[in-house]
Structures are given as structure tokens and as C-alpha cells.
Write a structure and sequence with these properties.
single chain; mainly alpha; two-stranded antiparallel sheet
């Protein structure tokens, strides 16, 4: 025999209860969780906070799972197959260039990759998207260097501004 509970509730409560029980019973794929959270948001008109309360999860957790079904297919496949972890998938999903993303994904799957490394790759890719203007580089090289301004500080004796590096330490007794 198994223990069973019969609980009354509306469809929304029953849906939330099912997912909550399943999330503790078995490890659900992030994509499946995201699809279900999206289902709750669309059909029940629940906010992220309401879903978070019902699932006993943080709003950040719910938001991160809601993004998973929107990721590129190659990222979701690698995540589903266990080739990469969730943190790596999240970082690489931000690389919009399909060729570059495929190259990074292959490297991560073949050699292993931490979420921090994948985040670094995605940030580097983002920085490299901005074209460098050769005219701006030439203008910066031709610019006259700025004159260094030495900080001034008033002298305690005469209140005249003195270069801070020329000040001496004076010991006074009370």
C-alpha cells in the first residue's frame, strides 16, 4: 500500500501542487519547468511572484526557468543531453551569432566548461561585436596629453595653497 491524500482545490492550486510534488520527487529538466511556469503564467494569469510562492522558489529561479524555452535549439539540446550545465547554457544562449555559438558550444561540450568561463566567453563576444573606429584610434593617438594637475592643500600656518607633495609633517604639542 502507498499513502495517498485526497485534497480539494481548484485547477490552479492542483496544477501548482502537482509541479511542486514532482520537482521534489524527480529532477525535472529546466526546459520542462520553464514550459510549465509559462503555462501557469498564460493560462492562470499568475505573476512571477505568485508562481514563486506556489512553487516555494525564488522569483529569480522562476525567471531563469522562464527564459529556458526561449533559448536557441542547440543550447536546449545540449542542456537536455547533459552535455553542458545550466549556467553554461544560460551564458552561451546570449551569443546570437549561430556559428560562434556552435563553436563555443562544441568546445564546452568536448573539453568541459564552467559557468564562469562561459560567461567570460559571452562577454568577450559581446565586446567584440562593437566595431572599432580607426579614426577614433588615430584621433586619440594625435591628441595632446593632458597636463597633470598637482593637488593643492592650504598651509595651516598661512593658509596659502601649497602642493600637497611639498607639505611637511609638523608635530605640535598642546
Amino acid at each position: 500500500t502507498i499513502q495517498a491524500s485526497i485534497v480539494d482545490g481548484n485547477d490552479a492550486q492542483n496544477d501548482a501542487r502537482k509541479l511542486h510534488e514532482n520537482s521534489f520527487r524527480e529532477a525535472l529538466a529546466p526546459e520542462d519547468e520553464g514550459a510549465y511556469f509559462l503555462h501557469l503564467a498564460e493560462t492562470r494569469h499568475w505573476t512571477i511572484r505568485e508562481i514563486a510562492v506556489a512553487m516555494h522558489r525564488s522569483p529569480y529561479y522562476i525567471q531563469s526557468r522562464l527564459r529556458v524555452p526561449c533559448w536557441p535549439e542547440d543550447i536546449r539540446d545540449a542542456l537536455r543531453n547533459g552535455t553542458i550545465g545550466l549556467g553554461v547554457a544560460e551564458a552561451l544562449s546570449e551569443v546570437n551569432d549561430q556559428e560562434e555559438r556552435r563553436r563555443l558550444l562544441t568546445y564546452a561540450a568536448t573539453n568541459g566548461c564552467s559557468a564562469r568561463t562561459a560567461r567570460s566567453w559571452a562577454d568577450t563576444w559581446e565586446a567584440m561585436k562593437t566595431p572599432i573606429d580607426p579614426a577614433a584610434i588615430a584621433a586619440a593617438a594625435d591628441a595632446t596629453p593632458q597636463k597633470y594637475l598637482e593637488p593643492l592643500y592650504p598651509c595651516y600656518g598661512c593658509s596659502t595653497p601649497v602642493k600637497i607633495y611639498a607639505l611637511q609633517t609638523i608635530h605640535l604639542c598642546a
